[in-house]
Amino acid sequence: TLPDIMADADQITQVIINLLINAEQAISKSGIGNRIVVKTRPMHGGGGIKVIVQDNGPGVPENLRARIFEPFFTTKDVGDGTGIGLAFCHRIIHSHGGQIWLDPTRKKGSRFCISLPLAREADMATPEADIPDGQGHAKRILVVDDEPDVAELIAEILKRDGFAVDYANSGDGALELLATNRYDLVLSDLNMPGVDGRGLYEAILRDHRDLAQRTGFITGDTMGVASQGFLKDYGRPFLEKPVAPTELRKLVQTLLTDAETGAE
To answer: Exposed, middle or buried, 250 (CB in 10 Å: 0-12/13-18/19+)?
Structure first.
C-alpha cells in the first residue's frame, strides 16, 4: 500500500484525467501506439509517492518539450478537447508541494512523472472544511460546454458538493433543457459551434430573465477580442480555463449570493 498524502482529491484527479486524455488523443490522432499505463509507487527515500502516466504513442517532439507546461501552449487544433491543460496541471501539483515533468529518457511514447510529498501528522489531524452555506442542497445547475470531458468534470465536482447537475454539449442543447427544466444557476463556455455563450446568454435574458444574474462563464478565450467585448458589455463573472475546483466553488457561491442579494 502507498503511504498517505495530503491532497485535494478533485485536483489530483483532474491532473491524472488530463494526462490520460492527452495520451489517448495523441494515439488516436497519429495512429501510433495502443497502450496507456498508470503506475504508482513510494519514492526512493520514503519522502513521498510517485505517479507515472506513460504511453507508447508518438511522444512529444523534442523541440516542444521545454514549452509544454507554458500557459496557453497547445499543439491541438481548435475544437480538439484540451482538458485542463498541462500548465494548470503544473500549477496544481506545485500547489501541493510536488513536481510534474516529462521524462526526457523515454525513447518511445511519453512518460509523465508526478511526485507528491507525504502528509504530516498535523495535516492528517485537521478536519476538512465544510461546504460554505448556500451551496448544494437541492440547488440545480446547468453546465454548458462543447467539450464533453470538461463538462463532465465540472459536473462531477459540483455533484460532490451536493448540487443536482445537468450538462449540455452545445448552446442549442442548453436551450432545450432550459425550456423544460428549472435551474438555479447556469455555467457556460463562451466559444461553441452554433449557439455560442453570447447567444445563450441573450436567450436567457429574453426568455429566462430571472436566470441572467445567476449565469457565469468558463472560457479558454478571454484573450479574444469578441470574448473580451462580451464579458465587458455584460459584466458577467467568469473563470479562465483550466479551472480549479476551489475557484469553481467560489464562482458558484458568488453567483448564488449575488442573486439572493439582488432579489432583496
So the answer is: middle
Burial, 86: exposed, middle or buried (Cβ in 10 Å; 0-12, 13-18, 19+)?
A: buried
The CATH number that domain 9-124 falls under is 3.30.565.10
- Cα–Cα distance for residue pair 210/205, rounded to 1 Å: 8
Domain ranges of the chain: 9-124, 140-263
Q: So what's the pLDDT on residue 133?
A: 42
Instruction: Retrieve residue 158's grid coordinates.
Output: 459540483
Q: How far apart are CA 85 and CA 18, in angstroms?
A: 7
Instruction: Give the residue carrying C-alpha cell 510534474.
Output: 100
- Residues with pLDDT less than 70, the chain: 71-84, 121-137, 221-223, 259-264
Residue (of 116, 152, 135) closest to 41 by Cα position: 116
Superfamily of domain 140-263: Response regulator (3.40.50.2300)
Q: Say what the pLDDT of residue 35 is.
A: 95
Residues in the chain: 264
Instruction: Report pTM.
Output: 0.59
Strands (E), the chain: 36-42, 48-55, 99-102, 111-117, 140-144, 164-168, 185-188, 215-219, 238-240
- Helix or strand or coil: residue 42? strand
